[in-house]
Every structure is written in C-alpha cells, then in structure tokens.
From TrEMBL, chains A, B, C, D:
One of its GO terms (biological process) is one-carbon metabolic process. The gene is purU. The lineage of its organism: Bacteria, Bacillati, Actinomycetota, Actinomycetes, Mycobacteriales. The active site is at residue 245. Catalyzes the hydrolysis of 10-formyltetrahydrofolate (formyl-FH4) to formate and tetrahydrofolate (FH4). This is Formyltetrahydrofolate deformylase. It is an enzyme of class 3 (hydrolase). Residues 12-88 form the ACT domain. Pfam families: Formyl_trans_N. It comes from Speluncibacter jeojiensis. Keywords: Hydrolase, One-carbon metabolism, Purine biosynthesis. GO terms for molecular function: formyltetrahydrofolate deformylase activity.
Amino acid sequence: MNPAVGDDRRFVLTLGCPDRTGIVARISAFLAELGGWIVEAAYHADEDTGWFFTRQAIRASSVELSAYEIRERFAKVAAELGPETEWSLHDSGEPKRVVLLVSKEGHCLHDLLGRAAGGELPATITAVIGNHRDLEPVARAHGVAFHHVPFPAAGTDDDARVEARTAAFARIREIVDAHDPHAVVLARFMQVLPPELCEHWTGRAINIHHSFLPSFVGARPYHQAFARGVKLIGATCHYVTGELDAGPIIEQDVTRIDHSDTVPDMVRQGRDIEKLVLARGLRWHLEDRVLVHGRKTVVFS
Amino acid sequence: MNPAVGDDRRFVLTLGCPDRTGIVARISAFLAELGGWIVEAAYHADEDTGWFFTRQAIRASSVELSAYEIRERFAKVAAELGPETEWSLHDSGEPKRVVLLVSKEGHCLHDLLGRAAGGELPATITAVIGNHRDLEPVARAHGVAFHHVPFPAAGTDDDARVEARTAAFARIREIVDAHDPHAVVLARFMQVLPPELCEHWTGRAINIHHSFLPSFVGARPYHQAFARGVKLIGATCHYVTGELDAGPIIEQDVTRIDHSDTVPDMVRQGRDIEKLVLARGLRWHLEDRVLVHGRKTVVFS
Amino acid sequence: MNPAVGDDRRFVLTLGCPDRTGIVARISAFLAELGGWIVEAAYHADEDTGWFFTRQAIRASSVELSAYEIRERFAKVAAELGPETEWSLHDSGEPKRVVLLVSKEGHCLHDLLGRAAGGELPATITAVIGNHRDLEPVARAHGVAFHHVPFPAAGTDDDARVEARTAAFARIREIVDAHDPHAVVLARFMQVLPPELCEHWTGRAINIHHSFLPSFVGARPYHQAFARGVKLIGATCHYVTGELDAGPIIEQDVTRIDHSDTVPDMVRQGRDIEKLVLARGLRWHLEDRVLVHGRKTVVFS
Amino acid sequence: MNPAVGDDRRFVLTLGCPDRTGIVARISAFLAELGGWIVEAAYHADEDTGWFFTRQAIRASSVELSAYEIRERFAKVAAELGPETEWSLHDSGEPKRVVLLVSKEGHCLHDLLGRAAGGELPATITAVIGNHRDLEPVARAHGVAFHHVPFPAAGTDDDARVEARTAAFARIREIVDAHDPHAVVLARFMQVLPPELCEHWTGRAINIHHSFLPSFVGARPYHQAFARGVKLIGATCHYVTGELDAGPIIEQDVTRIDHSDTVPDMVRQGRDIEKLVLARGLRWHLEDRVLVHGRKTVVFS
C-alpha cells in the first residue's frame, strides 16, 4: 500500500506511564498548542498495575511541524511524566514494512497478500521466507520476493541437525534485518524461534497459534481439541517471547464446531479464524494500536 | 442497587459539541484544576456531522467539590464550546430509578429483576406497570410495586376504544411521572406509545424490538423472519420516537437459526437475545454511556 | 411446565452402537411398521471410535402403542445391533424433574426459574438446595421448595470439618434422591462433589464452569483469565465426573472482553454466558439430545 | 481440487417430497440392499409446507454399482414417493466446475482462489469473467482463464447502452455455458443479471450481497447501514432470482461495528464477512447440502 497522504495522513502518538492526575491535560495542552486536530483519542488507566496508556491520532495537515520536530518537543513532556514513560510518535506517511515467515500451509499467506493487493494493509509486504518452496509461486505472483531457507528434517537433535538449524535461523535473521521490518509475522511457520531471535525482535515478532490459548499449547492443537471434545475452536495472535505460546495476546476468536467435525474439518474451519485473527492483530500492530505492558496488551482497536 | 459509595463513586461528564481543535485540552485542563482523577475517558469525532463527543468518569473522592458545584463551574467551559453544546454531569452516588412497562411475556421482566437482585443494574426498579395481571406475582416477589392498567382489547378503533386507550395512557403517564425515572423501559409492552408520550419521554423511553432492525419492523417479526428464510434472528434496543421502530439504536445482536427452527423455536431462542440486548442497552443508558445525535447514537461501552 | 400433550407429544428414541451398514434401515423399518411419523431424525457415525448414534422423535399420536410397549418391542431390534448397544425411549408426556444445587450467586437460579415460569424448560424444578440461605426467597417466590444444607467454612481439613462435609453431602444425596430427578444441576454450587456422588449421579449431574475449558480449571477462573490477558472469556456446561472440570462437555460459549475490563467486569459479563450455556445444555439434556460416549458428547441440537 | 478418490469418495443423495410415514424406511432399505455405508444422513420435515427433505452421503467403496446404475434403480423408489419428488445423486468423484463473475473489487476472488489453491473447494474454478481488467493478473497467476467482457458505463439507458449491455450478457452466457458449471458465482459482480439469465441459471447462480438481507436491498448497502446507525453489519449469500436481492438465502453472517466506524471502515470489515459467507454458501452448494423449496432453503451443513 502507498503510505497515507493528504488528509488521511496522521501523526499517531502512543504513550504509557505511571498513572496520576493531569496526564491527559498535559498531553492535550501540548497537542492544542501545535494546533493538532485530534481525530482519534483513546485512554486506559489500569488499576491493577497503576499504569496509564493513551493513543492519539492527529490529522497531519493540521500541524505545521514534521514528525521529527514533534518528537523533539514532546520528549520534554514525556520527561515530565517520569523516567518510566514509554512513548512513540509515528507518521502514517512513512511507509511500514512486513516480512512473512511461512512453511507449506498457504492460507494466511494468501489472505495477507490479498489484503495487501486490496490496499487494506497499512504496510508493504517486502519479503516472504519459506522453509519449503511450496508457496514461492503465489508470493512471486504478487510481486513479492521469496527466499527459500531450508531446515533440517525433524528428528533427533544430533549435532549436525542443531548446526543446520542454527545456520538456517542465522540466514533468516540476515534476510529479515535487511528489510528492517515493523513486523515479522510467523504465518503458520511451524518452527520455534530460538531465544535470541525472540529477544532480538521483541515487540515485532507476531505469531498465529491455532488454538484459543492458553488451551492447547504446542503441537497439533486441533488434535488436542478433538480429543477433549470442545464445542468451539479458536486462534490466537500474540507477540513471540521466549516462552512457547505464552507471549502477550493481541487478538483471539473462535468458531463453533460439533460432534460431526473431524480433525480435518477443524483444520479447514480453523483456517478461517486463523486468517481473521492474524489479519486483525497485524493491522492493529501496524496502526500502533497495541501497547504491551508485561504479559498483557492494551489494544485501542 | 445502592448508589455507588466510597472509591467506586464517580462523576460522569458527557458532552457533545461542534468539533474543533482544543476541546480535549480545555476539558482536561478543567478537570486537572479540580484535581480530578480520570478513571475512564472516551472521545469520538464524527467526521460526517462535524460533531465531537466525550464521556469522562472521574473518581469522586479525588475532587473536593459536589456535583452541583462542578456543574456550576463547568457551565462556563461549556459556554466557551459554543451555544449548541449539550452536556451533563452525573454523580453515581445519586440513585437512579427505572419504571418498566410489561404485558404478558415475562422473560425481560424476569431478567431485569434478577439483575437488579444481583446488584448488577445501576438503578432501582421502582415500579412495574402491566396491561395484564400475569406478571404481578413476580414483580411483588421482588418487592416491586405493580400497577395494573388495562387496555381495551384489540379491535376496530371506535370512539369508545380510542377513549379507553387514551385514558389508559394518561394513567400510565401519571404513574410513571410520579417516579421521575431515568428510564421508562418497554419490556415487551406490545402497545405503541402515543406521539405525546414519545415526545414527553424523549431520550428516556427505551424499547426492545424482537428483530434486527431495520428488517421486520412492526408486528410479528419472527413470523416475518420465518417467511423470508433468514439464517440469523436478532433483537434491537432503541430509544422510542414518534416513528415506529425507527428511533436511535442503542444495541443489537443476533443468534443463528436454521431450517429446522419453527416460529415457536425462534420465539424461544429470540428471547435470549432480547434479554441480553435490552440489559446491555439499559445498563449503558443508565451509566450515561449513550449520547444521541440525530437518528444515531454514540455508545461509549 | 406441563408435560407435552396432544400433537406436541413425542416418543424420543436415542441409540448408540457399533457402526455397520443397515442400522438406519433396521430402525426406520421398525418405526414404519408402527406407523410412526418421524418429526426429527439425526444420525452421527463417528469414524474415530467406529460408533453410530441416532436420535429420533416420533409424533406420539401417530403410534397406537404406549412407550412401555414400544420399549418392549424395540428391545429385540436393539439386541440385533449387538450387546454394546445403549438406547432409551422417552415419552415427552412423562414429566421430568430437576433439582438445583446453589450457593450465594443467584444469576443461574434466577435464569432457570424465569425460564421455568415461561414454560421454556421441559421439566419441573422440584427442589433447590443451598449451602447458604441467600437464595431461599427467590426459590420460594416461584413456589419451589428450598432446603438449607450448611457446609463447614473453608479452612484446614481437620477431622471435624471432613465429617461435617461428609454429613452435608449425605443430606444432599438424601434430598436429591427423594425427587428421583432427571438432572442434578450445580448452578454455581462452588462445592466439589465427592467421588461417590459423581459416580451415583453419572450422566445426570450437570455443572456450569465459568471458563472456556480446558483453560482455567479450578478456582477463580476469571482471575486466571485476567492474569493471562485473554481477549474472550467463556463458560462450559459439562457432566460431572470424578476428575475436576474434566467431564464430557455439553456446551460452551464465549464473550469478548478487552483491556478495560477488570475482574468484576468479567464476573458480570461472564454471568450472561454462564446462564445461556447452562440453559442450553440443560435443555438439550432434558430433551434427550445429548449422548455421552467416553469423554465426549454427541449433541443433536 | 482433484475429485474425491478412494475412501473419501461419496455418493450423495438428496431428495425432497411430500411428507408421509415410511419415507426414511423406504430410502434406507434401498441403501441397505446396496450394502451402502451411510457416513452422513440428515433429514428435515417441514411442518409448514408438509415437505420432507433428506441428504445422505454413502461411502462409494461400499457399493458395487456406479452412480449411473444407482440412479437407474433409485428412480423407481422416487416414483413411489409421488410425482412431485425431486432428487439427485451425485458422485463426489465426478469433478465440479465453477465460473466466477467479477468487477474491480478483488477480495472474494482472492479468497476463493486461495481456497482452491489449498484444496478446500470441492470444485475447479474454470474461468473468471470480469467487466474490468483489474483482476486479470491474479486469476492468471492461479492459472485460471480470464475473460474480459466490458459493459457500457453507467448512465441513461439509451438504445445504444441497452444494446451494448444485452450483447455483453449474451457474451457472458456463451462463455459460462461453454464450461457447463455447477455454480455461477457473482463475486461482487455489481451488475444485475437480466431475467432470462436468472431463469437460465436457476439454482446455480449464487450472489453475495453486502448486507444482512432483507435490510438494505440494492445499491450501497453500507451507506444505508451507516445512515441508519445499526450496530452490526452483515452479508448474505443467496441464489439469484428475477427479484433483486430476494432469492432463497443460503447463508448470512454479521460483524459488530460501532459509532467510530466510517463507511470505509464498514467496507473493509464487511469484506471479511462477505468472503466467509460466500465461501461457506458456495461450499455447501457444491457439496449438495442446499435444497431449495420455494423462497427458502434447507441447508444440511
């Protein structure tokens, strides 16, 4: 997608800090001084952690400064709000980039490429990396570079396998970092990221897990769901952390099944939920709507 | 329910005015001057109508003024925002009252009385008025006064019938107004309010219609839905206006049906949606979360 | 509710047996010989376990035999289908009975009593047993006997406490069994049934758990959900077995929450899901729509 | 997709006839005689119209006859059930074909091509016809023939325009009929089929309308929804008939919106519902799960 232009261009401010009185007044006074026209404003005061969160979208055309200049000025305001304050200001006119990691299952890739083609994704998909070549044609058909990084076959973790795997992830890191992406999406990638990559891409690596977490962590969640006899199956979009399937949840949804649904039926119906949940989660991430705090997220959707 | 006390007590400010820059700054500066601790804040700028809406909940214990005093001071701020500005400030420590109008179908009444008993409704149900006596026992069992106001049987509108009907509505108006309620709920009342009562209770009369409006306006919506062969049925909670089933919509929801569902099946399943939709809509109304603008609502849920 | 009469009266046949060809032909030939008018018929062949399930509802007025006589004749057909065959034939004209176990939280009780009052439950609620007296008034207001069986306060399991608890469950068993109910519903009872009662009421004891199982087993599931930061909360209606919250699931549903919802918000919103899920599960159980097989259910809803 | 082979191959029998006792017995006796292993069986007796419907899926490997031979034999059974009986027997091993009509909006096309690529659609997409060339590349990238049939620009219906339009539809008919498809899908085609094509493709032409019908018939339904202030938007998959947006409904679904959603937001979120509803409806149609009766459908999903 082309970055936002004209009257659709926004400056998006996000901020998290310890809660106290006067924060909203301080920030809105700052924005008013700039003449900033606020088109979206959301707040959340978390009583549990005593933390305050906000996201504000300002019509770019209403302010005479650049994003850089606003950042410079706002830094002083942020400093007043305490040393723990975390904030960012993004110009929706600056394009964002996404890199996708895939394996053989193509439904999430097809879905995201279709959305990108329809101008629905506020970012450009700059590369697709697959540990198999199955999805190369569809990526290329959409004009997106495809990189094949083979992984050793599953098996006992002998030295050679560990080494090959380490090399493959090093190669992936190299390709991904060359794009400096705003999101690294594990679109049914099926390989567990090593701890150092979880760390390196903190807050940018997004996974879609095919269960309603925390149920059915790990492998073959639809088989687990079938065995337990649940009446709904789900999917979870979350940030990747060092602990498997335990990162901050961005979005979840479910769909109804019944006794007549076999595991393949669940797989098929689950795909629709996976696609929706990942697309929503990724969109919110790219629009700076997701603020992470500890193990949880605030989503100003 | 007892009105909110202690740290749960809130001052709730709602405001709508023509949009321009600086409104949020003006309001939040005002609240900051009072030392007001904002626990909830929501904004909406409607690009279509150029209108700005906000709702702010302030911890009452953080402010040393009474609701009356805050209102006095805020009036000046509101005046600065232009003559069209509409606003209110409610003290959640001041109890609210609800009057219910019912007929023979009891599911919404049972539901609301159960919620009131569980402390879930931020108001007291002070009276139930029925055009039949069927629901008198359950109202009384919950300690709520029941008033029986019989209506003439359906039939040709001869003078006697019109007169009896007019007298019945006059009696209802009298009973309702004696309670000065914050909401008059048509909980499956099945009688169409005359225009003067729609006018008199503007913004306070709430109806639950058993279809997903604007489909199936008027009588027997489940029969209409059955005839059309829809795959979902719904319910709509809306403010009552002079035009039948056309008032501003507060909340809607649907439930799935299929070819095996008869009209009685729809009636039964529809009840669950009616109860939920009415309970949510009424709760939001009582918590000052619903701002009406023209034919539409802003719901800060 | 009055039992079904006239043309609404049904004979409901349910059957489970090892799958093979010709079962449907055998059963439908039997019903055709009786002149039975089938108004509902559902089948399920489970490829995983090789088991066949069916439920058939026959208009009672179309058959000249009594339920007793049909049972006698059908026993021969069932025998042909193999020694593992399990079946039942229920006459919807024979009234069913339900006993409810409650504690202090009243929402499920209010809901079920309201449904019973509206003729929506295909059974009579014959008794409510509470370990507290809080819900006695509402039960009595609906004309339902209330039995108070106090439990020892939570604490260390010394001998006296264990003994008091054992005595309380013995008393509950006595009261329940005196009603010979078709369902014993733990309507937010908050006490774990001892193994011998799980065994004694196998297939009749129904619990509502306030999470989307298998997530958040055990105590305080909403607190667990809050801590994990899930985006949907749910409820599960299941048969009680000796393993806590692990019995065959009858029905589940979820509702959306977000970062602004506190634990009390979840508790309030969760109630609506608990009520719906329990009411649906109980209704299906009472209409012989639920067939249990191992840890799972077939629900012909 | 390759047609079903081996143990996944099914004979699917669908039948509708006036209801009376013994139909199930007659059909299941017929299938038992063939040694047919029934893997799915569904029935519906419509009390409103006195009509009986069934769908049965038989494991092809369990029967020694061809679909042709079964049809020949079953014709006698069908004749016994009366002259109004309508039935079909499909062999899932015989491939099905789909032709898609599109305009500029690509989301439904992307979605269906992605599903076909994943082997999820029980048919082959044999051609895409567009009145614009925008979607030609994606069709070709999936190896599907694209036919461009331009239409006259919108405007006053002078003779030349009418003639050009008639010619365009004649060309479309020619292309479509050359493929003899089991479904002609209007995947956001935006042109109203002329009556003779509605007639010609009766029971095969499937449309996706971007509203929850019967609300918001005709043009710009999201604009209509925005103006009315509804809280949910939806989509409807239905058979095309001569009356605009009034054909038998196959599937519908909705998604929640709120006051902050503009028309473009609705368009974006609505796409996800359109894709899901069309994919489900088309799949059910292709699997012979949809039986049309008058203005309504029976869907054995």
